[in-house]
């Protein structure tokens, strides 16, 4: 079969299949053009999932009549400039777009109208392209002093086969919304408006550049709770700077849909982020929970290649290990700095679970017809006065309130220090006081003073502005786990030698990866060596794992090295064993604690990083502010 040169229209339609995969892809390309043009306000309107109509209007610097024709020519762009030798350096790309394919690709499969008024010009001009056929440039009306308006109608009408592969209009509209949100996250100083089928679904005002404005923009997109539950990230390693926000472990999601990575302002998809997030949060979340994170990587253009995907959705770092290490280190540093902090959404869910008992369930105000209030407590009059005075009537009305497991009252000497008790798992680690040291009121501590133990499982503590409820088992489990991690990191991991060294057959590339990490694996207690091509010989394993599946462990490590660049499988197995040991070694629910023990546990929690959540990401305590409690009772 002879080789033929394809006509330009067919070439553009083939290219459109890569660049314009769906309506959201067209919106992405048009929004990036607007951002590259310096726009500070971008409006997007779409009908029928973007298949019938897409309109993107901006207030950028605009285009003149001569540039309009060039804009729809393939590989014509203003974003690449030749150097003194006439060469174009594709590693020095400072814009979102640069390929010059978007507009000609869209014009080859749809009806495209491009209108613009250049900044400083009195006249506006328009150009139409239908199925690749371009009409002459002519004058037009334009509503703003400068900018551009790109209207796309009947997307894929010239390639009917593509329409059969489109999803529902609702699904395409959701994809458009997600794309606009990603672009808005990266450019907080630009205002965005999105209208779908005549209804405004997103309206974002411009925020000041910087961390404060960025957090406000992220909260407007991902939810207001993010502002109270986000940890700021700001770290630099060599020439790579990482900024952004990551959620507390207790502020997690059921999937990875709330993890975003931006490289030099460009939203990208990269397996690097998933592996780094998994490694950083390995000690705090169960495998089916995923953290929330929006991270921005800024680095010199020559250290990243953005010309690896037609849609520019993927990048390639020159030193991916450096970027990955920076992400993991920055996240771990932020999590450690959070200390015992837990998500505020935990308290919100507790508050929402309360229901005022002064009315029948479901009543909006007053009592429902036919509802009879329950009888008053013994000793309580109908007008709200005690029939008997003093604390005697109080105790008679509420028997059991004075028992040890229900109430703890501390006198001043006990509040200042703790008594020692040899069999207590808490007092051995309790803070010590010294003669002449300043006495701190327990109410001034972040977790306050213990006041009661409920159901011999939960500790109720009082702070200056609220109360704290602590799950004693979950809290102590975390303390034991962190202590085990510290001891393991402080000394070499104990190993157990295999009676018969075990040979693990692998793919040659997998064996090479593992052999390249022999020293790192040895620090974790796994001693192995190369055993010919495509095999390794395992001599020792971590004693902590006991009898383990050596073959499965090594293959899991090989998979982790290929996907994430780190031996997460071994670390997670050891962490799981530590977690199990911590669970069995911690104080159990049902144990009655003294006041000194409860306060010692609270002080240890305050001094231990990550004590706000257990090893599975569940909260160890809930804090209710006094204002929230007063609102429950109608005092506010």
Give the strand content. Answer: 15-25%
Roughly what percent helix?
A: 25-40%
How does the major sheet shape up? Answer: 9 strands, mixed
Average pLDDT reading: 80
Radius of gyration: 32 Å
* Structural class determined from secondary elements: alpha+beta
- Tally the helices: 20
Total number of strands: 25
What is the terminal-to-terminal distance?
84 Å
Shape: globular
- Could you list the spans in which at least 5 consecutive residues all have pLDDT below 50? 358-368, 376-407, 409-422
What do these coordinates show?
The structure is a single chain. The chain is α+β, with helices and mostly antiparallel strands and 636 residues long. It is built from 20 helices and 25 strands. The strands form six sheets. Strands 1, 2, 3, 4, 5, 6, 7, 8 and 9 form a nine-stranded mixed beta sheet that branches. A hairpin with a 4-residue loop joins strand 23 (527-530) and strand 24. The longest helix is centred in the middle third of the chain and has 19 residues, at 320-338. The N and C termini lie far apart (84 Å). Residues 358-368, 376-407 and 409-422 have low confidence and may be disordered.
């Amino acid at each position: 079969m002879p080789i033929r040169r394809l006509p330009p229209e067919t070439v553009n339609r083939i290219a459109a299949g890569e660049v314009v995969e769906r309506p959201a892809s067209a919106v992405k390309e048009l929004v990036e053009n607007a951002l590259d043009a310096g726009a500070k306000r971008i409006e997007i309107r779409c009908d029928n999932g973007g298949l019938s109509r897409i309109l993107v209007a901006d207030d950028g610097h605009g285009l003149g009549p001569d540039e309009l024709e060039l804009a729809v020519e393939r590989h014509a762009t203003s974003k690449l400039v030749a150097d003194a030798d006439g060469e174009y350096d594709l590693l020095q790309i400072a814009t979102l777009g640069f390929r010059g394919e978007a507009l000609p690709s869209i014009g080859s499969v749809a009806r495209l109208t491009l209108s613009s008024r250049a900044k400083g010009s009195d006249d506006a001009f328009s150009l139409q392209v239908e199925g690749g056929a371009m009409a002459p440039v002519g004058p037009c009306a334009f509503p703003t002093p400068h900018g551009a308006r790109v209207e796309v109608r009947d997307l894929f009408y010239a390639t009917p086969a593509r329409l059969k592969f489109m999803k529902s209009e609702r699904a395409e509209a959701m994809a458009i919304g997600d794309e606009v949100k990603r672009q808005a996250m990266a450019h907080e100083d630009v205002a965005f408006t999105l209208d779908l089928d005549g209804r405004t679904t997103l309206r974002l005002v411009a925020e000041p550049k910087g961390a404060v404005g960025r957090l406000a923009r992220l909260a407007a997109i991902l939810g207001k709770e993010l502002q109270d539950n986000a940890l700021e990230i700001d770290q630099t390693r060599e020439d790579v700077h990482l900024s952004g926000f990551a959620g507390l472990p207790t502020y997690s999601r059921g999937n990875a849909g709330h993890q975003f990575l931006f490289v030099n302002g460009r939203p990208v998809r990269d397996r690097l982020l998933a592996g780094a997030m998994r490694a950083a949060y390995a000690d705090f979340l169960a495998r089916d929970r995923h953290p929330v994170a929006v991270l921005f990587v800024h680095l010199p253009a020559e250290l990243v290649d953005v010309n690896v995907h037609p849609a520019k959705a993927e990048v390639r770092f020159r030193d991916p290990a450096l970027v990955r290490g920076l992400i993991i280190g920055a996240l771990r540093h932020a999590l450690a700095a959070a200390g015992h902090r837990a998500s505020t959404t935990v308290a919100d869910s507790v508050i929402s679970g309360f229901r005022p008992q002064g009315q029948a369930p479901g009543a909006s105000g007053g009592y429902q017809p036919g509802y009879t209030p329950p009888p008053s407590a013994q000793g309580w009059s109908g007008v709200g006065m005690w029939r008997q005075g003093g604390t005697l009537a109080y105790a008679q009305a509420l028997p059991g309130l004075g028992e040890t497991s229900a109430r703890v009252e501390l006198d001043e000497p006990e509040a200042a220090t703790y008594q020692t008790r040899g069999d207590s798992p808490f007092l051995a680690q309790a803070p010590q006081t010294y003669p002449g040291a300043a006495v701190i009121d327990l109410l001034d501590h972040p977790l306050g003073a213990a006041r009661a133990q409920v159901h011999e499982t939960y500790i109720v503590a009082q702070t200056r502005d609220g109360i704290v409820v602590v799950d004693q088992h979950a809290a102590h489990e975390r303390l034991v786990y962190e202590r085990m991690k510290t001891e393991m990191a402080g000394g070499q991991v104990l190993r157990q030698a295999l009676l018969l060294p075990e040979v693990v057959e692998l793919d040659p590339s997998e064996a090479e990866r593992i052999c390249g990490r022999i020293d790192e694996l040895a620090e974790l207690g796994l001693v192995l060596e190369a055993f010919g091509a495509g095999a390794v010989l395992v001599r020792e394993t971590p004693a902590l794992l006991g009898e383990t599946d050596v073959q499965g462990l090594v293959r899991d490590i090989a998979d982790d090295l290929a996907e994430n660049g780190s031996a997460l499988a071994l670390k997670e197995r050891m962490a799981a064993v530590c977690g199990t040991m911590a669970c069995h070694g911690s104080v159990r629910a049902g144990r009655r604690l003294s006041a000194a023990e409860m306060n010692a546990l609270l002080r240890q929690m305050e001094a231990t990083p990550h004590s706000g959540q257990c090893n599975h990401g569940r909260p160890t305590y809930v804090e209710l502010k006094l204002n929230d409690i007063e609102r429950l009772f109608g005092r506010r």
